Amino acid sequence: MYCQIVRGIKHGYTSYSLQFCLNTRHKSQELNLWQTDLMVIGKMEADCVAAYFGGKNILITGATGFLGKVLVEKILRVQPGVTKLFLLVRATDDKSARKRVQTEVTGREIFQVLREKHGMGFEDFIEEKVCPLAGDVMYKDFGLDTAKLEELSKDVDIIVNGAATTNFYERYDVAFDTNVLGAKQICAFANKCTKLKMLLHVSTAYVCGEQEGLVLEKPFMMGDTLREGTHLDIESELNLIKHAQMELKANCATDKAERKTMKELGLKRARHFGWPNTYVFTKAMGEMLLGHLRGDLPVVIIRPSIITSILKDPLPGWMEGVRTIDSVFLGYAKQALKFFLVDPDTIMDVIPGDMVVNSMMVAMLAHSEEQAQTIYHVTSSMSNPASYMTLRESAHRYFVDNPPRGENGEPIRMNKMRFFSTVARLRAYMVIKYKLPLEILHLFNIVLCGVFSRRYNELSGKYRLAMHLIDLYAPYTLFKGRFDDMNLEKLRKAKEQNSDGGEYNFDFDPKTIDWDKYFYMVHFPGVLKYLA
């Protein structure tokens, strides 16, 4: 065995058996006993984590996403002795899959440290270690042919399922295919793997919906919902989708009408059962199926909160894909967004992408070959909470020191963003600032026989979109919960911290982060460099 794993992880107290109040959590007798148990047993050192991946064959889905790229790069950099990384990507054939991986994964800036390390041999190293597969998690056996599937099932030691559609307002059928049926197909394949040691599934902390107070690291059971008096039947939801598709086809619906109908259906079903949007609703169903179908498989479910740019390793500030807080920052940088729906005193739960990947790799080692399911909140709101006020003050100070310039080359004066702490207040502001002028324009348009029709329709559409986004993002910008991370804290205690900042750094402790310094010196420069 590479390292001695602490009994506190495999046989210790689970987070949901420790009913701590927020203000007394670290004073409890149970926590003292738990810490004592951890000190008795050995530690996992960073080199043990890297060593675990040596000689392994790993299947990774979602490798073209932000987190997937960080994971692939990290494994290849710290453990060149990994046997093979099979990357399942959507493509017409393996040649197209290879080209897509070269373009969207290994060709990205995050691989520059690895590229420099191998020099002229980088492409050969990637060719040897990375095997792109053309397929899709939504299909049975991922759409692979029988021979390839059999070979893969004999070779794979670890599966990491990061494939997901993360659009809050996604079509119900599209989100269901990837986030629900994808989890089902992953589980079906995992049960065929003869030497599987670990199945790690990436979910989201916000599967809890709009829960307030302490959100526990506990699993979903089949049929669970977030609204009292309702019962969720996943098979019925699939039949509902199929029925809606048949009706749309029978009515010869346009592509636009079909998209709108399926998006509205997803949102309607999510809210019926207590979830705020289609994304978190389907991710919760995916967790349910995984827990129900896993059998004796060793399963780890990682639930990150809002993932932000890389903190340290390998490229501070690097990121891809605009998150909610980044779209706000970019809008503020251009002075196109001067207000936002958020309570400035609300906790903003964010976690750097490299910390998420570090926790994933340590968790895989900790629970390898363990016939159980373990859930981790990879979050910061309990260990090191940051408020939206910190974000606003850091952003304002950053632009005072680094002012953006207008077309004339002169510095743009940056005003502090205005925050609205309730939906009602923001709606009232929107009515006065935008809706009333729109109505006046509408009256002029009628009097002048439609002269302003195009302009009115354009502005009216933007107003409706803004109001829709307010409803869609309110559950997150006004989120009142805090994510219990006791399971993750046990994992941290079981691993010896490596603080040298080298390539074998597996730190995932948010308590080490100075949020103001991170936003000012790492995240904001990264957003402007990689996303603007």
From TrEMBL:
Fatty acyl-CoA reductase C-terminal domain segment(s): 434-531
One term of GO molecular function: alcohol-forming very long-chain fatty acyl-CoA reductase activity
Listed transmembrane segments: none
Statement: the UniProt record of this protein carries the keyword Disulfide bond: no
Source organism, top-level taxon: Eukaryota
SUPFAM superfamilies listed in its UniProt record: NAD(P)-binding Rossmann-fold domains
A family per Pfam: NAD_binding_4
Name used for this protein in its record: Fatty acyl-CoA reductase
Gene: LOC123409980
